[in-house]
Amino acid sequence: MSCSTRLNSVVYKLENDELVSCCLISGERIYTPAATCGQNWIEIVANLIQNNYNIWLTVDASNLKMQALVSMAGLKAEHNPEVIKKILANNDQKNPDDILVIERNGLTVFEKTDHSDYPQVLFRS
Q1: Please, what are the domains in the chain?
Q2: Which DSSP string corresponds to the chain?
Q3: CA–CA distance from 56 to each of 14, 62, 67, 114, 116 (Å)?
Q4: Are strands 120-124 and 56-60 parallel, antiparallel or unpaired?
């Protein structure tokens, strides 16, 4: 199933009739937030967190800048392997047995057991 078939919402912010930030989401998962500057990015993600019960997203484990932006917006890295597997299995149609959760550089990261995808960190509200 491609990502585009799972998306059900688009959130955006306009300033002076120009698009300054947008975010694709599906249920609780945030996909592809984008903005004209870091502050607009933080604001749109923070707004989603403020107005939704449970929001989560995944970030490349090596992308420290994106991890910092996510934290500034109000999401926290999840460290419990069981919670990570449960969220991914329930919301992203992944088999928990196909997810390897390890600690790397002080973060709990996950990747597919066959190593076909890059390690990621799960952040949630």
Answers
A1: 3-124 (3.40.630)
A2: --HHHH--EEEEEEETTEEEEEEEEETTEEEEEEESSHHHHHHHHHHHHHHSS--EEEEETT-HHHHHHHHHHT-EE---HHHHHHHHHHHH---GGGEEEEEETTEEEEEETT--S--EEEEE-
A3: 24, 18, 13, 24, 22
A4: antiparallel
How far is residue 98 CA from its own chain's centroid? Answer: 19
Identify whether the C-beta of residue 25 lies closer than 8 Å to the C-beta of residue 48.
yes
Report pTM.
Answer: 0.87
Q: Is the separation of the CB atoms in 49 and 61 below 8 Å?
A: no
> Tokens 């990015």 label which residue?
41
Cα dihedral 35/40/42/44 (nearest 10): -80
Residue by residue, pLDDT tens for the chain (125 residues) are 344 556 678 999 999 999 999 999 988 899 889 999 999 999 999 999 999 889 999 999 999 999 999 999 999 999 999 999 999 888 766 677 788 899 988 889 999 888 788 899 999 99
